[in-house]
UniProtKB/TrEMBL annotation:
This is TlpA family protein disulfide reductase. Gene3D superfamilies: Glutaredoxin (3.40.30.10). It is found in: Cell envelope. Signal peptide: none annotated. Keywords: Cytochrome c-type biogenesis, Disulfide bond, Redox-active center.
Length: 518
């Protein structure tokens, strides 16, 4: 990842997988575009819909045709999560996917098992069928693409490469100490650095002008979300990069809500943000920020919640009404549904009906609630285990002894690790299949995960959790020779380690590993 403002968690020794930058970017930047140049997109609107993607995958004669599959990742801007779909390519090369969508047009991340490192940007329309035919050569490179409705081919193939180039672009100016400067100085520095990065996209001659415009908006959201929103983390990172004394910690000035006046520059009432996938991540930052302190929605009547929220945000955003606030309220419910995996209460359902009636936002939330209600039947409550008095070399031993007679899958993760969270989401339904069986799922993290955020995240994960200190974490990582997360340990019923691996494989592979030990 680019060194500078985009670097995070400088004090943790944990590494994200080497492909993490590309993977996370592919996951976060599934963008759309504004009208013109054959893209033909109107102002996006919210809809509880279904879109179909069909097509063919053609490979040279004689090439192995077994076990080819396609994957798409769809951004759900209202419920606030990325939803993945996988479809097997049959013997004739055909595939078909029906995907839930939450906007009239969704741009999705598309990849195949033939060349997962070269994803495509593909447009889906609610209630319509998108046809995608791809021909690969003998090196598994894309040789030809045909798509209906038509889409700019360079936008499809070049988009993710361009984002990678933007992330890797080194800053023109040398990193300077910012931790001892004013917050306005930092914000001006950040704006200048962002301009340097956006110039990479501006100078690109292949991607359409319309897609660039959306890219500018979305990258700004990504940049501010990861590098500016958390001032304390940004200054700690800056101190680590620019100060020679690694044993000291900087005294970082406290910020208040006025720090977030930069939100006004985004003009967040613009409905085009529904095409910017980072928007749903940005909204999560707004809802969880401790300085802004927006109240949880829980069972509060929506107009009352909105009144409290507007009192906090209106001066910072520059507006007191508009679609943004309705989307934020929906996102607040979405956090409960998609992160805590907690179904709506009867009071919440009534609040939603009272405010949105039978509108599209209500339909989306109730559709998501049905899915969550099914998962909730098999979810175990999150149990926090006190690890403070356990010696570093006894952590795994303690876990194994607590769960004798059960198969144990230990997951090393962090709240900031995109691949970790995505793996958990992918594994939800498969994990539910082991409910009531002799299997226990244990999750380890360290201080790089903010404690409060960790406590929120584990509500939706459930099962057994340990919050390790630096020595405990480093011992586990070193003992099992893990270089990055997510990483996993699998023990049989006798407590014997039978497998260890990094990066989450396919669900079926992990399922088979566990079943072999039952």
């Amino acid at each position: 990842m680019k060194k500078g403002l985009l670097e995070s968690n400088p004090n943790t020794m944990t590494k994200v997988i080497k492909l993490g930058v590309f993977y996370m970017l592919s996951f976060l930047f599934l963008l759309a575009a504004k009208p013109a140049l054959g893209i033909g997109i109107d102002t996006p609107t919210i809809v509880s819909g279904i879109a179909k993607l069909t097509g063919t995958i053609k490979i040279p004669n004689g090439a192995k045709r077994d076990n080819i599959f396609v994957k798409i990742t769809v951004p759900h801007q209202i419920s606030g999560e990325f939803v993945k779909y996988k479809a097997v390519v049959d013997g004739t090369g055909k595939f078909s996917v029906d995907a839930d969508v939450e906007t009239t047009v969704s741009f999705v991340h598309f990849s195949t098992s033939l060349n997962p490192g070269k994803p495509l940007l593909v447009k889906l329309e609610s209630g319509e069928v998108t046809r995608l035919d791809i021909a690969y050569n003998s090196n598994s490179d894309v040789e030809n693409i045909e798509v209906t409705p038509a889409m700019n081919k360079n936008d499809m193939t070049r988009y993710f490469d361009l984002i990678g180039e933007m992330i890797q672009t080194p800053p023109i100016s040398k990193a300077e100490p910012l931790y001892d400067k004013s917050t306005d100085h930092f914000l001006n520095y950040a704006k200048s650095l962002l301009s340097e990065i956006l110039a990479v996209a501006k100078n690109d001659t292949l991607i359409s002008k319309e897609l660039k415009e959306v890219l500018y908006d979305d990258f700004r959201l990504f940049f501010y979300k990861g590098s500016v929103f958390d001032y304390d983390a940004a200054m700690t990172a800056n101190y680590g990069r620019t100060n020679g004394d690694k044993n000291k910690k900087p005294v970082i000035q406290k910020t208040d809500r006025s720090y977030y006046h930069f939100l006004r520059d985004f003009k967040l009432n613009d409905p085009q943000y529904l095409y910017a996938v980072t928007f749903l991540e940005f909204q999560r930052k707004v809802l969880l920020n401790e300085t802004l302190a927006i109240p949880q929605i829980d069972e509060t009547d929506i107009p009352i919640w909105l009144s409290s929220t507007k009192a906090i945000l209106s001066d910072l955003l520059g507006f007191n009404s508009g679609p943004y606030y309705d989307i934020l309220a929906a996102n607040a419910y979405g956090r409960q549904l998609t992160e805590e995996i907690r179904p709506l209460s009867e009071k919440q359902k009534q609040n939603i009906l009272n405010y949105w009636g039978n509108g599209e936002i209500a339909k989306i939330l109730f559709r998501k609630n049905q899915e969550v209600a099914e998962l909730d039947k098999f979810k175990s409550p999150a149990v926090i285990n006190d690890a403070s008095k356990i010696a570093p070399d006894k952590i795994i031993q303690k876990i194994v002894s607590k769960h004798k007679g059960k198969v144990i899958l230990i997951d090393l993760w962090a709240t900031w690790c995109g691949p970790c969270l995505e793996a958990m989401q992918r594994f939800r339904n498969t994990k539910a299949e082991f409910h009531g069986k002799d299997v226990v799922f244990v999750y380890l993290t360290d201080g790089s995960s903010p404690r409060k955020l960790w406590e929120e995240k584990i509500k939706g994960i459930g099962n057994e959790h340990y919050y390790l200190d630096d020595k405990q974490w480093r011992h586990v990582m070193d003992k099992f020779e893990f270089e990055y997360i997510p990483s996993y340990l699998l023990c049989n019923k006798k407590g014997v380690l039978t497998n260890k691996f990094s990066a989450f494989p396919e669900n079926e592979e992990v399922k088979a590993m566990i079943n072999e030990l039952l």
